[in-house]
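Recall that a protein's primary structure is simply its ordered list of amino acids. Everything else, from secondary elements to tertiary packing, is in principle encoded there. The following example makes that idea concrete.
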Amino acid sequence: MIRVENVTKNFGGIRAVDGVSLEIAQGSITGLIGPNGAGKTTLFNIIAGHFPPSSGTIFLDGEDVTALEPHELFHKGLLRTFQIAHEFSSLTVLENLMVVPGEQPGEELRHTWFNFAKVRVVENRVRERAREVIEFLEIPHLENELAGNLSGGQKKLLELGRTMMVDAKIVFLDEVGAGVNRTLLQTIARSIQRLNQERGYTFCLIEHDMDFIARLCDPVIVMAEGRLLTQGTTDEVMNNEDVIEAYLGTGRKHKRVSEA
């Protein structure tokens, strides 16, 4: 579904992403891990159109989408969330979901004046879909809560819900579990699995919680210092000596070798 070919990103004299090539298969839940500063979020931003690559090419379903803006990729079904949730804090959970679908007739003043019946029909349809999303995410008690009052984990669930308001093909989740309590994290994990299994969503997620990665992801891709280090199952990558060195330093790697 996604193919990244030899992508590089420079910020001045710093090379944040260095010749990365990878593929994300349709229907997979792919994990992207690596130590801080590995270039993971920068790569996400490039794929999602927030940064242009310094060189290299991005393909979505075989189409070159390297030069497309985020809103153009959104309409092609490529969505991403952020480490810090971007909610409309003064709107309710329901209203936050309802504003996601684009090109609603109520957005144009002429329709609100001269075609109010159409506006109402579409609005009711969007509201119904938003309530279905709220039920799916197991948060019906939060429907009328202001989004600004939600906990960090609830805001992450809301961001996931917003991807469900459009016909998403692939969703990039940036540290969806960061700062989330274990109960809510289990709800998020169940929602991701159900979206993948029941609705055919493809996911790629950055995460530092390896239990979360092990539960959800296959394959797992590892980056370090802007480069692709390795990929495989969770067990394979966590027992890879290069991964151990990238995370824990050469001392731990050499210690393991000497103990053997």
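The two ends are 41 Å apart (CA to CA). The first strand starts at residue 2 and ends at 11.
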